[in-house]
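ingest -> validate -> predict -> emit
validate: passed (alphabet ok, no gaps, 190 aa)
predict: started
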Amino acid sequence: MLVANISTMSTKTERTRTRLLEAALELFADHGYESTSVAQIAQLAGVSEMTFFRYFPSKESVLVDDPYDPLIAAAVGEQPVGLDPLTRVARGIRAAWHGMPIAESAEVRERLRIAAHSPTLRAVMLRNTAQTEAAIVGALRDVDPLAARVAASAAMAGVTTALLEWSLADTGELGAAIDSALDVLEVRHG
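emit:
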């Protein structure tokens, strides 16, 4: 009986989260991110504002969610020490990316498209990117700190640019956009 209740709760939790996300995306697309309130999202999803905040710590977190820093840092840290820092970072990001579950491209594209058009969300993305850069620098302990920061910044700038450009296009796959950015960054050896 306890297992059935947990499973029902999990399904209800997933449905509520999905309703909130869909409501937010619809309102952001129709009215813009800045003009949409948490109250409007909650109302459209049929829940209270308090319920919204149980699922998302802030309005921005509906669109900008980045739980992958530990995976990226670990993958960068696993790259051969003999490679230059930028190649290590590019290969590490690629390895992490290919090891992650790929989200539905249409939803990711819509989230990124909204972020691309919102100065507020662009600032949030920059903050998240800085956190990812710091995690990458931490993984490059054997590299000169300046070289590690430059490599991390260059790689994240390339990936962010590819993500935003991909979001504004109506074609192409997300994975191909990431790989293309990493191809530009990665120094080929041998």
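The CA atoms of residues 58 and 161 lie 24 Å apart.
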